[in-house]
């Protein structure tokens, strides 16, 4: 497989992985034109001039340029990165430019920004004063945050320690609390009792 074919396969693979948000353009440095373009959304096509700076020493250039921002023909922002590709003689032969259409993420950022910008009121006592489940959830959340872990990543010893901490905090005093904790930790109620007896 030639270097050109291999690079084309990489370009196609990247564009398919992140479709439809990524365009990958291969430029010939020697001929200063586009030799392949995967998922074209910037209005260019194979054979178009690359408009590379003819004075650039690509052999001495950094292998990776960017990421940097550029605009598509419609003025939409793209996040781009360029990679200098070398041949068997270690000479700069082509340039692979990966252009990421960031509009979808800007929309998400705007949506989340509005969501998290809302000021929150204190929890209503009428809803949470006697909500032992909510208190257990909050305790488990803090425990996982402190450990940098998730429920799924906890080993047997970590689950045991969490159960014992919940017990010391009085979380098991409520009716059905043992069953609820077992459900959260994906263990049986009998396992919870075994942890408690092991202290």
Structure description:
- The protein is an alpha+beta fold and 199 residues long.
- It has two domains: 3-106, Beta-Lactamase, CATH 3.30.450.20; 125-197, no CATH class.
- It has helices spanning 3-17, 103-117, 125-128, 132-147, 156-168, 177-184, 189-197, and strands at residues 22-28, 33-38, 64-71, 77-86, 92-101.
- A five-stranded antiparallel β-sheet has the order 2-1-5-4-3, with helices on one face.
- α6 packs across α7 (189-197).
- The radius of gyration is 28 Å and the shape is elongated.
Biggest beta-sheet profile: 5 strands, antiparallel
Using only C-alpha atoms, the radius of gyration works out to 28 Å
Order of helices and strands: HEEEEEHHHHHH
**Uncertain ranges:** none
Mean pLDDT: 86
Task: Give the strand line-up of the largest sheet.
Answer: 2-1-5-4-3
Please state the overall shape, judged from the principal axes of the Cα atoms.
Answer: elongated
Task: Give me the CATH architecture of the largest domain, please.
Answer: 2-Layer Sandwich
Number of continuous helical runs = 7
Structural class: alpha+beta
Beta-strand fraction estimate: 15-25%
| Strands, count | 5
């Amino acid at each position: 497989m030639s270097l050109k074919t291999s690079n084309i396969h990489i370009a196609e693979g990247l564009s398919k992985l992140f479709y439809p948000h990524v365009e990958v353009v291969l430029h010939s440095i020697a001929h200063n034109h586009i030799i392949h373009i995967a998922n074209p959304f910037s209005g260019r096509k194979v054979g178009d001039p690359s408009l590379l700076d003819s004075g650039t020493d690509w052999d001495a250039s950094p292998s990776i340029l960017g990421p940097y921002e550029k605009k598509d023909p419609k003025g939409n922002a793209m996040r781009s990165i360029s990679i200098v590709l070398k041949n068997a003689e270690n000479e700069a032969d082509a340039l692979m430019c990966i252009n990421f259409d960031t509009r979808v993420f800007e929309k998400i950022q705007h949506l989340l920004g509005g969501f998290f910008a809302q000021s929150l009121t204190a929890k209503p006592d009428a809803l949470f004063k006697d909500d032992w489940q909510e208190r257990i959830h909050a305790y488990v959340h803090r425990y996982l945050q402190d450990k940098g872990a998730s429920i799924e990543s906890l080993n047997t010893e970590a689950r045991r320690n969490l159960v014992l901490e919940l017990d010391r905090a009085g979380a098991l005093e409520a009716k059905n609390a043992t069953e609820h904790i077992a459900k959260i930790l994906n263990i049986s109620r009998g396992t919870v009792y075994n942890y408690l007896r092991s202290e």
